[in-house]
Amino acid sequence: MIRYLIMDVDGTLTDGKIYMGASGEVMKAFDIKDGCGIKDILPRCYITPIIITARESKILTNRCDELGIKHVYQGIRNKLEKLHSLVDDLSECAYIGDDILDLQCMEPIKEARGIVGCPADAAKKVLKIADFISKKDGGNGAVREFIEWLEINK
């Protein structure tokens, strides 16, 4: 039974573009449908959302506050170590990510019989191991599509 949805951010919850101004990061776009899936569907399924991302962003902090995501870990390059500190049983995890850094969690979750998913525009190595490949690109409703799939296949 899936109890946790671990999500990458850039390229998964966003389109992977980072808009930079003279004083640093100024903008990221998030899909409202992904937000609805996280805020409204996951609680009905008793699934806890967890963000583990390599970058740090005040923009992400604001979005997670808006969605009520309490478990947000930024600036994490060793995602698997962080995941192990949060979750005892990887078979209870679903993970959605898009790039090679996500494989460090995706592979052990898949080996433990958890579920791994990715956006349509994920890296080839990620696409190769995914149990679920969204028809949508990152930042364009891929996370929502994965959440709906998890809800149906629970």
UniProtKB/TrEMBL annotation:
Belongs to the KdsC family. This is 3-deoxy-D-manno-octulosonate 8-phosphate phosphatase. Its cofactor is Mg(2+). It comes from Agathobacter rectalis. Its EC number is 3.1.3.45. The keyword Ligase does not apply. Homotetramer. GO terms for molecular function: 3-deoxy-manno-octulosonate-8-phosphatase activity; metal ion binding; N-acylneuraminate cytidylyltransferase activity. Mg(2+) binds at residues 8, 98. InterPro entries: CMP-NeuNAc_synthase, HAD-like_sf, HAD_sf, KdsC_fam. Substrate binds at residue 10.
